[in-house]
Design a protein that fits this description.
By secondary structure, the chain is of the alpha+beta class. The longest helix is centred in the last third of the chain and has 29 residues.
């Protein structure tokens, strides 16, 4: 069947884990060359595979990744990311969390804590976080479409503490700084004495869909410490992205 052949091609591209040429696909499927090339073009036209290098070699497309991700439950995502988050919690000796963007909101969906029994740590809780005041939300919002940022700025900007940014100028400056540095921080913007840092997790070409962060007392999360942690979170975010995408591709 036509659909079977399309699925076979997508499976080959997904399993390869690298750009695959049409010649390789034709040999792997055993299809006649004109048929294989026509099917490849159909998948390209639908965005299910892509040829980013311009040399004809293809990879799994943004649309297919998006479809797989939309069907991915929090349980699946947590299973893929948890080992990396736990290792980071032990390394930082602080709480590390994973947040997810959906329905125009950002929710913390998983938390890992340090193993040190003598360590006092902060648990951020689970659930929706304010888009303008939490590092996990701002790490995603800063890379969002301008229209979505405008919705955030034009919404209710509650002042949780005297440190909460509640004006358009403050938020736009904060978003610009986040984009420049690659991570967001929250300096007592929700609770006095508590700070957090988060980095966006981009999935394929569909943008920042998740974020990874860490939270702790301000005495351990001073300005310089937040910069150092932020740079480490950028690396962690890249590895979490790879784990989630690998999980997606394996089930496509």
């Amino acid at each position: 069947m036509h659909l079977d052949r399309l699925i076979s091609i997508m499976e080959i591209v997904a399993v390869a884990g690298r750009p695959v040429s049409p010649v390789e696909l034709q040999k792997a499927t055993g299809l006649p060359k004109p048929t294989c090339y026509r099917l490849v073009q159909t998948l390209l036209d639908q965005g299910l595979i892509e040829a980013p290098s311009g040399d004809g070699r293809v990879i799994i497309g943004e649309r297919l990744i998006r479809i797989a991700l939309l069907g991915k439950s929090d349980v699946d995502v947590r299973r893929a990311a948890a080992p990396l988050l736990k290792a980071a919690a032990v390394q930082f000796n602080e709480t590390v969390f994973l947040s997810r963007f959906r329905n125009s909101q950002v929710e913390i969906i998983h938390v890992e804590t340090p193993d040190d029994p003598a360590r006092a740590y902060i648990h951020p809780g689970i659930g929706v976080r304010p888009m303008h005041a939490c590092s996990c939300s701002k790490a995603i919002a800063a890379f969002a479409e301008p229209e979505f940022q405008a919705c955030i700025i034009g919404g209710s900007l509650k002042a949780y503490t005297e440190h909460t940014k509640t004006t358009e100028a403050e938020l736009r400056a904060d978003f610009a700084r986040i984009v420049e540095r690659g991570f967001a921080d929250c300096d007592q913007e929700i609770d006095l004495g508590i700070a957090s840092v988060a980095a966006p997790v981009s999935i394929g070409n569909i943008g920042a869909t998740f974020s990874v962060g860490t939270v702790g007392p301000i005495r351990r999360f001073g300005p310089q410490s937040r910069i150092e942690i932020g740079e480490k979170l950028i690396d962690l975010a890249s590895r979490v992205s790879g784990a989630i995408q690998l999980c997606n591709v394996a089930e496509v």
